[in-house]
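Quick bug: ABC transporter substrate-binding protein output formatted oddly.
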Amino acid sequence: MPDTDRRKLLKTIAAGATVGPATLLSGCTGGDAKTDVGGSTTEQSEQDTETGSSGGSDATDSLSLRILLDHPFDQFDHNTGWMGPPARDIYQNLVDRDYDMKLQPGMLKSWSFENDNSDLVMTLREGITFHDGSSFDASHVKWFMMDYLMNGSGTSYMVDGVVDDVVIEDTYTARVKLANPAPNLLWNLSSGYAAVPSKGAYEKHGDDYGRSIAVGSGPYKWKTRDGDRHLVLERFEEYDWSPDWIGHEGAGNAKEITYDVITGTASRTAAIETGEADAILTGLPPTKVQSYENNDEITVYRADGRQIRWLGFNLNPEKAGVIAEDLNLRKAISYAIDRKSIVDGLFQGLGQPGVNLLPPTVPSQDISDEYNHSFDLDKSKSLMEDAGWTVNPGGVSTKDGEEASFELLTTNASTARNLATIYQEQASKIGVELKPKVVDEATVQSRIKDGDFETIVEGYTWQNADILDWFFAFDMTPYPAWFGVQEGREEDMRANELIEAGMSAGSWEDRIQKFKKAHEYLMENLVPAAPVHYPEGISAVRSEVEGYEFYTLGTTAETISK
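Here's what came back:
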């Protein structure tokens, strides 16, 4: 699969579809990809006013739910960077991920690889219809993969250079002809970007599709939308094809579901505390978790998330000088970060200390412990000494007449600024001066793309090892500017070879193992970032709500009632 083809998603994200904060709130769930840098617009003051619907669920209607989010909606099709949890109610996928994030049949009954993994045979579930009454069959799969995904600005990477053709063998059997073995295709088809729409509705509504209407085959259908902060869905009465792993039969329990976006933290939490809302799906502040866990009226759901916060380094010597040239210096800074104190202090004990470049829900995160990083001040100081750094009387280390003093780029969001202050204080213990530079998000994005930074407060949300390819392969556009990985340096060439081996692996297990090797190499020989924090996925639900299951990708709404 050509590199330029399999990497088109990043062009969409880089253009601003979902570029956001490293200051990820612990409750974030929803769309698959977020590239998170700097600060979050969701972190607003306690005095922020409520946005969205002002009314709560009618207490006399046990089948009406109101769910709160902290992110405005985007367009509900493959051009969006964040469709949000409602997309999981409107749409279904050919392939699902269950509560444990393992691949499961969705709209497919089964699948198999044949002819030395060059064919993917899909057996479709029969009887599925879309909200507009149109049928789901093998011809729809062909259109979906060869037209909809192939021409989507955020989805073409899934199939372009991967899928040669889709052959309709019969009404409910489609044979996907692969350009080469593609074990990652099934995972891609389970992502929010690969939700399956009605062909007729998509073609009928053109540019308005995803804004004024979205038509899928999920348990709830579009009723009304008010801007990017209020959406009402109603039960799809004909729905009777919930995937087996969800454990539900028939139409959804709730008659109607209202999604409201409330960006103000105080307003969002007040709504669930007073019963005006039934759940906070994204944006539950860490400061509220303990009190809610002790509140009989609210249930808190927690699980491993898909996110990571880190202190990023620019590896381009022309842009970042000694921070890019000195591996031991980067390692020393990483070992100087007291992750547990950050998790316990700044994040109220929520989440885990970061140890490497992948979240804990990604199989290739589980590398040999010798390559993981944790707080070790003695080791940090030893690395500085071995590299020839000496602390001068002013407290800043020097080497060959150059000081270990670097700008730390961040946004003005509260968590980002707090992290910058902590990084600054902890790095000072080894004589490294990190000088926070607070700018707005647009400036951060511009400087990243120009490679104009030395160190940065950063993070991302993703659940696949191909994030290593996106960030650290030197031929990825525009992301090499983020970390300065460049063709010509021997260590970068080796990293690129290992990453490419993972991307071109012939099976899923082989892919995991090859990405582990690439991951270990990055942690030992490049250290493009100091991993700091794995936030948890957290949501809060009123205790009278029944049938709720925590699902890191959004909701399984058909099971919920109250």
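Actually, after a second look the formatting is fine. The first strand starts at residue 19 and ends at 20. Closing.
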